[in-house]
Design goal:
With 545 residues, the protein is mainly alpha-helical. It has 27 helices and five strands.
Length: 545
């Protein structure tokens, strides 16, 4: 997935006091107040387990207190227990319907659960109730970015910075928007300004590293080491800084040190939310089985012909494929759209059961309804050009649903060398991709992706294509012609000169796709035997010099 921004967490004890936390604590004993304040501080630092320990006694004694419930919702959300978090937050907000901070927390809780539309609505309500709530405007900006509403996002982030000039995450997000707009120099300057004031802000360090156009030097490496030791840095800061440090060490050829920095960052992230590889594999198998055999779509065979889905693991060349297609006169490159998962989530809410349990009850008319709902949500992407791309990587999980909803759509599944792909995912700071924390989890996730996409390509060769990155590198014109033909598009020379196309690219590969193709992109040989544990996890032989 692309570099998704992360919504702000529960405000710290100090911030909460400044936004009226003292009245919110009424009805609690002095000891419970101490526990709540300590829990808020731990939660602000992203330490769910520590926050849970602090809050446990207060929750046992005050199970219906709104502020206790609000913090409890934050802890559940960090642990990935999203349904329980939303229920707890609904109970809290019902008691404080005019409290902006409660709507803000509701928004971040919904966001973590993937309910983007509801999250935006909750955060707008927070900003309406309290127009000077900087954290509300910041979180709204983050959610609008994730909803691919960039102009609105920029306005919200600017509002946050105007209200709180020291809101470094909002300033970093604005620098990110400069980066994806192709203004690398301006973005670097903004990141540097943030770090001049707050040298421990991890996302600013990662922003610099992710630019890939400016070298992080020896001085920067020393400053990042200092940032990791800074007591003012949160766990989120240390994680992001660790990834940036690894990138700088990699560029300096210090590969063992780079891996050590990554391991340290992963260890911090793992404390928050481990990945359940076996449960995920079972879920993917259940989804694929639910669409085998596929639903009858003969009556709507052309529905969705205007959509091209690009699915992949991160770092597999999906941004490159979108850039090639978006260079065509008939295609709008829309980026990573949230609409397909949201439409599926809407149906889950309507039927009051999780996906894919309701698949067996669907009729042809139901699938057509969902397909038209998706096209309705994405209609504005066809204002200028008749065809659009949806590049949300994790949509590979929903290929069966796409075929049922939009049988006329084309799906391009991007594959790249498994070792290169998994190591690139391991090195990239990707919010929400918990599977990338360990080599065994990465290998398991890759196998799920590989097995599922190959299955659907075999079942539906006219609508699902495996696009092999190495084949594109070996024969760009031939591979691009085949890609366009698969998508029902006439050949255009501009697609071969994709690097000349001017458009915003919102992914970690933004810099690369503005350059011609290069054959020397393999990174794993530089690490040699250091990556043998990853090779073993992927059932590959050890490194041979």
């Amino acid at each position: 997935m692309g570099r998704r921004p992360t919504a702000g967490r529960i405000p710290s004890a100090r911030a909460s006091m400044e936004t009226g936390m003292v009245p919110r604590l009424q009805g609690l004993s002095p000891l419970s107040v101490q526990h709540v304040v300590a829990a808020a501080q731990a939660l602000d630092a992203g330490r769910a387990d520590e926050a849970g320990r602090h809050l446990a006694d207060a929750l046992a004694l005050n199970p219906d207190h709104p502020e206790v419930l609000r913090l409890h919702a934050g802890i559940l959300s960090l642990r990935g227990e999203h349904a329980q978090a939303i229920r707890a937050m609904q109970r809290a907000a019902a008691q404080r319907p005019q409290d902006a901070l409660y709507h803000n927390t509701m928004g971040t809780t919904l966001a973590a659960a993937g309910e983007f539309d509801a999250a935006v609505a909750a955060l707008r309500q927070a900003c309406t109730l309290q127009p000077d709530l900087a954290i509300g405007w910041y979180n709204l900006g983050v959610m609008l970015i994730r909803s691919v509403r960039f102009d609105e996002a920029a306005d919200a982030l600017k509002r946050a910075v105007a209200l709180a000039p020291d809101h470094m995450l909002a300033r970093t997000q604005l620098a990110d928007m400069l980066r994806v707009g192709g203004c690398a120099g301006e973005a670097a300057a903004e990141y540097r300004k943030v770090l001049a004031e707050r040298p421990w802000v991890g996302m600013a360090w990662w922003g610099l590293a992710d630019l890939r156009t400016s070298q992080l030097g020896t001085d920067d490496i020393e400053r990042m080491h200092a940032a990791l030791r800074d007591p003012r840095a949160s766990d989120d800061d240390r994680t992001a800084t660790g990834y940036a440090l690894a990138s700088a060490l990699d560029a300096a050829g210090r590969y063992a040190e780079a891996l050590a920095a990554l391991a340290q960052a992963k260890e911090i992230a793992l404390r928050r939310q481990p990945w359940q590889a076996s449960a995920f594999s079972a879920a993917v198998a259940a989804i694929d089985a639910a669409f085998t055999p596929p639903p009858d779509t003969a009556s709507t065979a052309d529905l969705g012909r205007e959509a091209i889905f690009i699915v992949s693991l991160p770092r597999s060349g999906s941004t490159l494929v979108e850039q090639i297609l978006a260079s065509h006169s008939q295609v709008e490159g829309a980026g990573e759209l949230p609409d397909l998962p949201l439409v599926i989530a809407e149906e889950s809410h309507r039927r009051r059961m999780p996906f894919p349990h309701w698949v067996g009850a669907m009729q042809s008319a139901d699938w057509e309804r969902l397909g038209r709902r998706y096209l309705e949500r994405t209609a504005h992407w066809r204002d200028r050009r008749p065809v659009f791309t949806d590049k949300l990587p994790n949509n590979w999980i929903y290929i069966g649903a796409i075929r049922a909803m939009l049988p006329g759509a084309h799906i391009v599944a991007c594959h790249r060398d498994r070792l290169e792909t998994c190591f690139s995912c391991y090195r990239q700071h990707l919010a929400g991709n918990e599977y990338s924390r360990t080599f065994p989890d990465l290998a398991s996730y890759w196998r799920d992706f590989d097995r599922s996409t190959r299955h659907w390509a075999e079942q539906h060769p006219s609508n699902v294509r495996l696009h092999i990155y190495e084949e594109l590198i070996a024969d760009p014109p031939g591979c691009i012609r085949a890609l366009l033909e698969f998508c029902g598009l006439p050949f255009e020379e501009a697609c071969v000169r994709f690097h000349e196309t001017k458009r915003d690219v919102r992914s970690p590969s933004a810099t690369q796709v503005r350059q011609p193709l290069r054959a020397d992109t393999a990174r794993t040989p530089r690490y040699g035997a250091l990556l043998d544990p990853l090779r073993a996890a992927l059932d590959l032989p050890p490194f041979r010099a």
